[in-house]
Amino acid sequence: MAEPLYLRPVAEHDLALLERLYEDPSEAGELGFFGYRNTGQLRRMWAEQGFITAGGGRLAIVAGDDRFVGEVQWRQVLQGPASTCWNIGIALLSAERGKGFGKRAQRELAEYLFAHTQVNRVEASTELANVAEQRALESAGFSREGVLRGACFRGGAWRDMVMYSILRDDVALKA
Length: 175
Hints:
By secondary structure, the chain is α+β, with helices and mostly antiparallel strands. It has helices at 15-23, 25-28, 41-49, 101-116, 131-139; strands spanning 5-9, 52-53, 56-63, 67-78, 84-92, 121-127, 143-154, 157-167.
């Protein structure tokens, strides 16, 4: 039986682990570290406005008895003159990868966004080399749409990304 997993607002006691996901190259891993960008930014954002706004947010991924395993985030993007959707992302602590938390958390986030907002589309992208994330998205019900050539700069090089989406009609919302 799978370990219980749920999403909840980020709490102050989560911030140190959340910072490690983005500021520690060994914790972020090869596909998750984008350089030292703005140390302390996450704490400032949390203190000033929290992590849930009209244009996006972050939720902690917790397993078992409230063990922080990572975070999911979403931001609003425009896909036409009057059509917005959510673009989502995920980061898991290195010790928690490969346990199925990613696919479950991304599916939970998509269901949450469809239940509480009016968007019709949730999208996610990942580097072409990130096969594990591609499998997680596909297992979560996302459809592969195509490759975005040279769309992401990381580690001194431009990298191709793979775009995925899930539509409101693809998700049977829990009653």
